[in-house]
Amino acid sequence: MRRIALLTAFALAAPVAAYAQPRVYERDRVYQRNQDDVPFARDRYDRYDRSHWVRDFRGRWTPLARGFSARTDRQFINVGGERFRKLRIEAVRGQPLIQKIAIEFDNRTTQAVDLDVRMPSGSGEVIDLNGGERRIHRIIVYTDPRSRGAYSLYGS
């Protein structure tokens, strides 16, 4: 009787162990070189992996605002003169409706981006700043207060 119980336990545990670590085949690897001409391998995007933001910009996104609620008309995010090339806004909870993002730079110029998009949780948008790396004074995010949800803002 113990033998049957032991074999049943192994039979049930084997499929779970097989799915614990996905296999990465050599054909799925992408070989690239970084800035110092050192080769490195990167796994291709798998739809079961985390989002492509993590895959493409691993460790390069600086959090500027985490979990901001979209229940008010606009939110002011003070950056304090840090330099960024790109901004990324990502829905964290619910489906916030992001109408517009205004970016004020240190030289008092402004870049406005009309998004007008309802973002489901986990999705996001990348905003490329005109002119390369620029110092940002503050960011104003305009949202629809009727849309419930939260978002995070990152800079790279």
Write up this protein.
This protein is an alpha+beta fold and 156 residues long. The chain starts with a helix and ends with a strand. The strands form three sheets. It has a four-stranded antiparallel β-sheet, with no helix packed on it. It has helices at 2-20, 52-56; strands spanning 29-33, 39-43, 62-69, 74-84, 86-94, 97-105, 110-118, 124-128, 134-143, 149-155. It is built from two helices and ten strands. It has a domain at 60-155: Jelly Rolls (Sandwich). It is elongated and about 80 Å long. Mean pLDDT is 76; it is low at 17-21 and 40-49. It is 15% helix and 50% strand.
What fraction, in percent, of the residue positions are helical?
Answer: 10-25%
Question: From the helix content, strand content and strand pairing, which structural class follows?
Answer: alpha+beta
**Pattern of helices and strands:** HEEHEEEEEEEE
Task: Write the CATH fold name of the domain at 60-155.
Answer: Jelly Rolls
Strand order within the widest beta sheet: 3-10-5-8
Radius of gyration: 22 Å
Taking pLDDT < 50 over at least 5 consecutive residues as the criterion, the unreliable ranges are 17-21, 40-49
> Distance N terminus to C terminus?
61 Å
Beta-strand percentage range: over 45%
Specify the CATH architecture of the domain at 60-155: Sandwich
Whole-number mean pLDDT? 76
Largest sheet: 4 strands, antiparallel
Report the count of strand segments: 10
The CATH class of the domain at 60-155 turns out to be: Mainly Beta
User: Outline, from the CA principal axes?
Assistant: elongated
Number of helices: 2
